[in-house]
From TrEMBL:
Its cofactor is FMN; [4Fe-4S] cluster. Keywords: 4Fe-4S, Flavoprotein, FMN, Iron, Iron-sulfur, Metal-binding, NAD, Oxidoreductase, Quinone, Translocase. This is NADH-quinone oxidoreductase subunit F. Its EC number is 7.1.1.-. GO terms for molecular function: 4 iron, 4 sulfur cluster binding; FMN binding; metal ion binding; NAD binding; NADH dehydrogenase (ubiquinone) activity; oxidoreductase activity; quinone binding. It is an enzyme of class 7 (translocase). It comes from Buchnera aphidicola. Composed of 13 different subunits. Subunits NuoCD, E, F, and G constitute the peripheral sector of the complex. SMART domains: NADH_4Fe-4S. It catalyses: a quinone + NADH + 5 H(+)(in) = a quinol + NAD(+) + 4 H(+)(out). NDH-1 shuttles electrons from NADH, via FMN and iron-sulfur (Fe-S) centers, to quinones in the respiratory chain. Couples the redox reaction to proton translocation (for every two electrons transferred, four hydrogen ions are translocated across the cytoplasmic membrane), and thus conserves the redox energy in a proton gradient. Residues 338-383 form the NADH-ubiquinone oxidoreductase 51kDa subunit iron-sulphur binding domain. Belongs to the complex I 51 kDa subunit family. InterPro entries: NADH-UbQ_OxRdtase_51kDa_CS, NADH-UbQ_OxRdtase_suF, Nuo51_FMN-bd, Nuo51_FMN-bd_sf, Nuop51_4Fe4S-bd, Nuop51_4Fe4S-bd_sf.
Length: 426
C-alpha cells in the first residue's frame, strides 16, 4: 500500500478531479477545477491544425485497445471542400469487453471532462456534429450524460458560434442495444445508422466514408478524456508522466479473486506485479495466482512469470499478448482452464455477427469441443483440432478482429496449461 502513487493534478490528468465522496462533478465544480479552460484556449488561440500537431507530438494512443496514434487518426480526415458538409466525431462508449469498466468511471464521475475532450477533438477535425454511442446497460451513465450535455449547452459550450469563435457543434447521446461487435468502429457506424451491426469493408475508411457517407472519426471515451490536459499543460509534461515509450497515464486495474479489485490511473511502464500487489493487494487468502489476462477477455493469458512485465503496448505485445483495455483479470489456482476458456468462447460465439464463415462456424465448433473436454468426454484429436481452428481464425483470415481476439485466450491456455486439456480426453 505504501508504494501507491498519490493522486494529484500533476500526476493524474484523468482522475485528479474525482471527489472523495465519488459524486458526479457537474459543470460549476468542473469549471472551478480548470474545466473547459483547454477548450477556451484552443478555439481562441489555436487553429485546428495546431491541435492535431499537438496531439500527434504528445504521442497519445487510442485507449480502446488498438493503441493507434490519435493525432495520426485525426490527420487522416480529408480537407474540407464544402463548408456545408457535415463531418462527424463519434465517441465510442459501448464498453462491452468483459471485466472492463474504466469508461464507465469517467462517464459517471467526470462527464464534462469527456465533453470537453469531444469539443477539442471536434474542433481539431472540423466536425460539426458528434454522437456518444453509449452501452445500453449504462443507465446511470445515460442520465448523467444527458444532464451534462444540457449543462454544456446552457453554458454556451455546445451550439452555434460557440464562445463567439465561429465554431459550430452539436452533440447527441445514443444508447446501444448491447452488441460486443459495436466496439468495431464500422459496426458502430452501421448500428448508429439503424442497420445491423456488421463491420464494413475497408477501404473506404470512416475518415472518408463514415456515418451517412460523410467523413467520420471514432474515438474511445478514455482517449478523448486525455485531450484537455494535453492542450492545457503541453506535450513535455504529458510525456514525462510515463515510465515507458508510451506516453501519459492509463486507467488500469485487476479483477478476479484479489483482495481489492478496482481501476486506478497509473503511468505506462508500471509492472503488473505492482498493480496486483500494491493496488489490488494480492490474491485472497488461501489462493494463489495461476494466470492472468492483461486487458480483457480477448487477450492471451499470461502466467506468474510474466508479472514483472511493463504495462505498455509494445512490451505486452512482444511477450505474446495485448495490452487491450489494461483491465487485467486474475485467475486463481482453483479454476480449471478448460472450464474458464469454455465460458469465454461461449461469449464470443454468441457475440459473433455471423458475417464471415470462419467466425460464424468456427467459434461454435470450438465451444462444442471445449464442452466435451470439460466433461472429460473428449476425443484423442480434439486438442489438435482446436489448434487448427486457432490458425483458421487468426489475424487476416476473418473479416474483422473479433475471431482473432476470441481465440487468443484459447491458444494461450493450450500453450501454458495443455495438461488440463489432455485430462479431458476419454
Amino acid at each position: 500500500m505504501n508504494n501507491k502513487i498519490v493522486r494529484m493534478e500533476e500526476t493524474h490528468p484523468l482522475t485528479w478531479r474525482i471527489r472523495d465522496d465519488k459524486k458526479t462533478i457537474w459543470i460549476k465544480e468542473y469549471c472551478n477545477k480548470n474545466g473547459y479552460n483547454a477548450f477556451k484556449k484552443a478555439i481562441h488561440q489555436n487553429t485546428p491544425e495546431d491541435i492535431i500537431s499537438l496531439v500527434k507530438e504528445s504521442g497519445l494512443k487510442g485507449r480502446g485497445g488498438a493503441g493507434f496514434s490519435t493525432g495520426l487518426k485525426w490527420s487522416l480526415m480529408p480537407n474540407i471542400t464544402n463548408n456545408q458538409e457535415h463531418r462527424y466525431l463519434l465517441c465510442n462508449a459501448d464498453e462491452m469487453e468483459p471485466g472492463t469498466y474504466k469508461d464507465r468511471l469517467l462517464i459517471e464521475y467526470l462527464p464534462h471532462q469527456l465533453i470537453e475532450g469531444i469539443l477539442l477533438s471536434a474542433f481539431a477535425i472540423k466536425a460539426t456534429r458528434g454522437y456518444i454511442f453509449l452501452r445500453g446497460e449504462y443507465v446511470k451513465g445515460e442520465h448523467i450524460l444527458r444532464q451534462a450535455i444540457q449543462e454544456a449547452i446552457h453554458f454556451g459550450y455546445i451550439g452555434c458560434n460557440i464562445l463567439n469563435s465561429g465554431f459550430n457543434f452539436d452533440l447527441f447521446l445514443h444508447t446501444g442495444a448491447g452488441r460486443y461487435i459495436c466496439g468495431e468502429e464500422t459496426a458502430l457506424i452501421n448500428s448508429l445508422e439503424g442497420r445491423r451491426a456488421n463491420p464494413r469493408f475497408k477501404p473506404p475508411f470512416p475518415a472518408t466514408f463514415g456515418l451517412w457517407g460523410k467523413p467520420t472519426c471514432v474515438n474511445n471515451v478514455e482517449t478523448l478524456s486525455n485531450v484537455p490536459s494535453i492542450v492545457l499543460n503541453g506535450t513535455n509534461w504529458y510525456k514525462k508522466l510515463s515510465k515507458s515509450s508510451d506516453t501519459g497515464t492509463k486507467l488500469m486495474g485487476f479483477s478476479g479473486k484479489v483482495k481489492n479489485p478496482g481501476v486506478w490511473e497509473l503511468p505506462f511502464g508500471i509492472s503488473a506485479r505492482e498493480i496486483l500487489e500494491d493496488y489490488a493487494l494480492g490474491m485472497q487468502s488461501g489462493l494463489s495466482l495461476k494466470a492472468w489476462q492483461p486487458g480483457g477477455a480477448g487477450t492471451d493469458f499470461f502466467t506468474q512469470k510474466h508479472l514483472d512485465l511493463s504495462m505498455d503496448f509494445s512490451t505486452i505485445s512482444q511477450a505474446g499478448s495485448r495490452l487491450g483495455t489494461a483491465l487485467a483479470m486474475a485467475v486463481d489456482n482453483q479454476i480449471n482452464m478448460v472450464s474458464l476458456v469454455h465460458n469465454i468462447e461461449k461469449f464470443f460465439a454468441r457475440e459473433s455477427c455471423g458475417l464471415c464463415t470462419p467466425c460464424r462456424d468456427g467459434l461454435p465448433w470450438i465451444v462444442k469441443i471445449l464442452h466435451t473436454l470439460k466433461n472429460k468426454k473428449g476425443q484423442s484429436n480434439d486438442i489438435e483440432n482446436l489448434e487448427r481452428l486457432c490458425i483458421s481464425l487468426s489475424p487476416g483470415k476473418t473479416f474483422c478482429a473479433h475471431a482473432p481476439g476470441a481465440i487468443a485466450p484459447l491458444q494461450s491456455a493450450i500453450k501454458y496449461f495443455r495438461s488440463e486439456f489432455e485430462n479431458g480426453i476419454l
